[in-house]
Structures are given as structure tokens and as C-alpha cells.
Task: structure prediction
Amino acid sequence: MTGPIDGHAHLNELAALHRCLDDARQAGVQAIIGVGMDIPSNRRILAIAAANEGFVFPAVGYHPWEIRKDAVEETLAFIDENLGGCVALGEVGLDYKAKVKKKLQRHVFGELLRLALRHGKVPILHCRYSHERVFTMVTEAGVDRAVFHWYTGTIDLMRRIIDAGYYISATPALRYSPPHREAVRAAPMDGILIETDCPVAYQGVESRPVDVVDTAREVARLKGMDPAEVMAVTAENTKNLYSLPGLL
Result:
């Protein structure tokens, strides 16, 4: 059986990191994409990946929640300097429920998309209450590969995302989120990645990378598939998208 890949994990936020990574390995998880949100978390993700080469793959990012006007220049410079050694740019995007002004968010996101293109890296997209705007900015920037993380937008937009060659990702929220469930049910398997977004709590329980197995089971339930097949297909999708060294 081909084990799953956790395509989105905030490993820097895990209190018992080594145990969590060991649990994931023992459960057959092949790899984890560790994502950053600001300079401190990016540094930590890079260090974790370096210490777990071939299992944890880094993505440096600038989350819309973390944007501060006086830190934008420094953060973009850090990402530019370190993105070449990463498999993706993330987590980045827009959040129209965040307190950060929309104009500033869009400016930063535009600059980040330019970095993604310059370095040839896939952006991992946060798009809470901003799916259409994120899609427009990504397509207009000329980005040809991207992931719409934890997708909860409309089915119509999901189809446009897939038609553009992008992916959506599924999380354990499939257990209780109707928009997320409906989108994943309607999406083709070759356009889906699976993840945990750990340590996000789902129904009061904090997630860990090992919970990507549960995500695969939920996708399988929606699709009427064997969980092992879901793990194999989504792992292949993830490997191909990020060109994960050593796993292709």
C-alpha cells in the first residue's frame, strides 16, 4: 500500500514534534509538507525539514493573518532568499475575515506570486471568504500550478480551478463541513491533495500529521473508493505537483 502524504502541516506549532513525526512514520505516512506563516515559523520549518530530510519538505510563506506593514519588506526578502530551497510557497493568500486591510493583503499577495513565478514554486493558497479574488489574482499573474488549501468555495469555481490545472486540498473537516464535503465530492481525483492543517482542532480535537489517514478515509467515503486507492492517487498527485526529491 502506498502511504498518504500530508500536504499541509504547521509543524512548528506541534508541542511534541518528534513523537508526532514518529507516529506518522509508523502509520505509513510517506512525507509531510511543512508550511510557514512568517519569518519565525519559516525558520523553524526550514530547520525541521533539514533535520528530517526526505520526510519533511519545507514551504516558506507569509500568511495574511501575519501581515504587518512594517515587516513586509523584511519578510518578502527572507522568502526570496530561501524559497529556492523549498518545494512550495506557502501558506499565502487572502483572508477577508482578517483584520489586516484588504489592500495591503492584495499588495503582499501580488508580490508573493511574483516570487513564486521567479523561483518556479507552487503557491499554497489560503482563500477564506476570498476564493474568487485569489483565483483571479493567481490566473492573471500567470501562475500555472497552485493548490487551493482546504477548499470551501462554490462548485462552479472549483471546476474553473481544476480546468486551470490547479488543485484543491481536503482536510478532516470533511466530517462536518458541507461546503468542503460537496466540493471534494464533485472534484476529480486527479485534482485533489489531502492534508491535516495540523494542529488545527477538528470538532475539539487537535490534529496531527497521522490524521491525514483519516482525511483519506473521508475522501474514500465520499467517493465510494478504497482508502488505499485514495492514499495512492493523492500521494502521486502531491509528488508530481511538488517534484518531491527522492519520492518520484
The longest strand covers residues 88-95. Residues 102-119 form the longest helix (18 residues). The CA atoms of residues 58 and 85 lie 8 Å apart.
